[in-house]
Amino acid sequence: MRRSDLGEFEEVVLLAVAALTPKAYSVAIAEDLEKATGNTITTGAVHAALQRLEDKGLVNSYMGEATAERGGRRKRLFSVTPAGSRVLHQVRTIRENLWSRILPHALPKVDLAR
Amino acid sequence: MKKASNLDQPPTPPKWGDKLIEWFCDPHLQEEVIGDLHERFHLRTKNRGIDKAKNLYIREVISYIRLSTITQKAAGYSSPLFLHPDMIRNYLTIAYRNLIRNKGYSLINIGGFAVGMAVAMLIGLWVWDETSYNKYHRNYHRIAQVLQNQTFDGEVRTWWSQAMQLAPELRSNYGDNFTYVITASWTNDRLLSVGDKVLTKSGNFMEPQISHMLTLHMLEGTREGLKEPNSILLSESVAKAFFGDASPLGQLMKIDHRMDVKVTGVYEDLPANSDFANLGFIAPFDLLVRSDDLEQKVGWGNSWFQTLVQIADNADMDKVSAIIKNAKKKKVTAEEGARFKPELFLHPMSRWHLYSDFENGKNAGGRIEYVWLFGIVGMFVLLLACINFMNLSTARSEKRAKEVGIRKTIGSLRSQLISQFMSESLLVALVAFTLAVVLVWLLLPAFNEVADKKIAIAWTAPSFWMAGIGFTCFTGFLAGSYPALYLSAFNPVKVLKGTFQMGRLATLPRKVLVVVQFTVSVTLIVGTVVVYKQIEFAKNRPVGYSRDGVFSISIKTDEVRKNFTAFRNNLLQTGTIVAISQSESPVTNTWITNSGFVWKGKDPNMQDEVVTMGITHDFGKTISWKIREGRDFSTAFATDSSGFILNEAAVKYMGLQQPIGEVVKAFGREYTIIGVVNDMVMQSIYEPVRPTVFYIDSFNRVGFINVKIHPQVSPKEALEKSEATFKKHFPATPFEYKFADEDFAAKYQAEERIGKLAAVFATLAIFISCLGLFGLASFTAEQRTKEIGIRKVLGASVLNVWGLLSREFVLLVCIAFLTAAPIAYYFLSGWLQNYTYRISLSWWIFALSGAGALLVTLLTVSFQAIKAALANPVKSLRNE
């Protein structure tokens, strides 16, 4: 099914959910990704991705506690489902498989610090 | 301090973001979305400063505007649409159940409403008919009649008539302003004949372009048809009457047995709401000029005709009116009337029907007053019906308060409750509308009879239904608005706990409404009584002559004029009549005035004008007039052909001390006054008798034969004899007669019509008010069942209870009466000002109306009050 295909942004968000569990929610994920990529990531974009992931059955959600910063509103917390876990593992296997087959001089050298 | 407290609080983002999200975002997502936005803003403020945070906040909010957040998804709870089909069905069900459960109320509500709407509809149709006059003619906005203001002895009189020389003058010297200028005679009954077939039809002689001006719809022939010198255009119905289905084109006819004409066209009948409605035929004006030799006879001084104009397409009515102001004055000699300072002006077609009265040269309204009057009455009757509806709905609201409470608790929004009560009232209004349409359909023939109209309901016109339904919805909303807003404002906790009490203030609006209702009703009653009294008063005014058994025949052909004497002698021989004579005007309606009289002691500056009436001998005997001084005309004195008989008003007008024997110069010769008769009401019954001069007609101008039937002979027999004799002497003239008392009755027909309509509306207003009162009284009685039970147990008598329940309503009606009396006084004294001969508004009319209203109120309320008072207290107290 096409819908179970994972977009690039969705994959990153799914990974972030996994990394941040049990405190994975849209603001935390957006902040995290913003720090990691250096680009502005809006919560709206993350929220939409999370909704799509939930539709595909890759994440679960429940309402968490309220905080003062949120004006007393609750947050929606996400965790990865078994299906999500399988997809993540598959993706990882495919990638690692590919990485392992790259010959030592096939990739041009780049400065990773930049 | 303020700053510190600000630091404790997390910084909050601009409010508009929340508002925007709340507006578009799916409700079940709103909490997390707004929470996210706030937290992010808070974090950004901490890390990167408030300005940066605010800038990014805009981006954040916008990033949420996507399909996935807007789309409504079934989640934890749903919020159905404000007007969801299921809810509407529920409202209708509840409304239906409520109506069925309270059959009495429903009947009063719907019945009263239907009657109110039917009245409003009838009046609406009437007003529409009145205001749509002459719109059939496509050049409606450009057509006008030329009127003239002349000053007689300081008083300005407005004449609708003009000299036949005016139209050519306007055409040649003011032609740029007009498309058409037309001279026309007056629409009169004429004898039309084809071979042996003779019929009386009304028609007119007009200049040929009239067919273009009135945009006649030609069924046969063309509008150019009148250009032929001896032509005639027939209306469809007249053509049918003569020729049936055969084509009348080219057929030869005669008018009054003396003018030969050929039919050159047939036009569609003009509608009843046109001032030309009874134009059965049109013949060329030239034909009249030739056959009556008018060219020789009439000059600028004879304003005998009408001048109709259509102004040019680019012209302005007022400007043209100003341009032609002196057109006549420049042409006439002093002899012909320049001394009366004739000033011409245009009276537009759009104002002919509703603004036809002139006072002192200024327009003084006319029928428009009745249009306003009835329009207002219709609105009031409708208002009464609406008030009933509101009153009963609010009265019942206590019963439905629990329903409102439950609905609110379950989660109804106020808007939903409002829409519920609105839909209820709409339902009632629609049912009432259906009933009202049926009622109007049934009543219209009778209404047309009373109002002298030919109104039909345009069943197939979408505009009628749109107006009707739109009007119903409007009324439904209007009537429903009060209960809708009032009931929906109940506090559910109080209602359900049982502590909900409608305080004294809650009944105040209801009382105000009852007062308004009865104010209108009492005003209408007083109005009706006054109108009737005024008509009665004018009707019973001493007329000064006898109309009993007097009938008149209008003289239409020359044979009647020539052979009158033989006819007269023959008819007298039959013994069925007492007297027979001829006169210039009908007995009950003298219309000819003359001026230029000279008598001894006349003020040389006086611009005299008196009514003149040419008669033959025996006229006085025919109408049994009463000679005050001198004697009647007599065949014994040959000199009587130059004798005058004056009425008392004329004697006073001329200031004569010893009238008998005085010489008056008139019509270019000298007359001697031989007698004085008492004043006779021969014109308006509401005006003083005008100075009138009677003389033996020597100009052959007589137009009517007057006959007095022998008192011992039945009118039927006398008429049969008269007809037989008439036929024998005048074979070519149809025998058509009118009784003087019927003619006289026509004088107060307009007022009588108003009186009848006012009576009908007043009755309806009272009826509707009483329905409302009845409903309210029964409600009050029901509400106080327990109280009444306890009172009875403690020893109250039936009378006590009756007084208890009636007192409040009686008080309200008294207040209403006190409000209505000055209003009625103000309007009615204004109305009576129109009549010189009028009643005074005496106090007892008001007292009677007030007492009547009170009596009706008591009867209405008592029914319920006594029912409640007679009820067994055990029953009402048994269950709690």
Automatic annotation (TrEMBL), chain A:
Residues 15-89 form the Transcription regulator PadR N-terminal domain. It holds the Pfam family PadR. This is Helix-turn-helix transcriptional regulator. It comes from Rhodocytophaga aerolata. It comes from the Bacteria. The lineage of its organism: Bacteria, Pseudomonadati, Bacteroidota, Cytophagia, Cytophagales.
UniProtKB/TrEMBL annotation, chain B:
It is a multi-pass membrane protein. Residues 106-326, 523-721 form the MacB-like periplasmic core domain. It comes from the Bacteria. The keyword Ribonucleoprotein does not apply. InterPro entries: ABC3_permease_C, MacB_PCD, Macrolide_Exporter_MacB, Permease_put_prefix. Keywords: Cell membrane, Membrane, Transmembrane, Transmembrane helix. The chain crosses the membrane at residues 107-128, 370-392, 426-444, 464-491, 512-532, 757-781, 809-828, 843-866. It holds the Pfam family FtsX. Residues 376-492, 760-869 form the ABC3 transporter permease C-terminal domain. It is found in: Cell membrane. Belongs to the ABC-4 integral membrane protein family. PANTHER family: ABC TRANSPORTER PERMEASE YTRF, MEMBRANE COMPONENT OF TRANSPORTER-RELATED. This is ABC transporter permease. It comes from Rhodocytophaga aerolata.
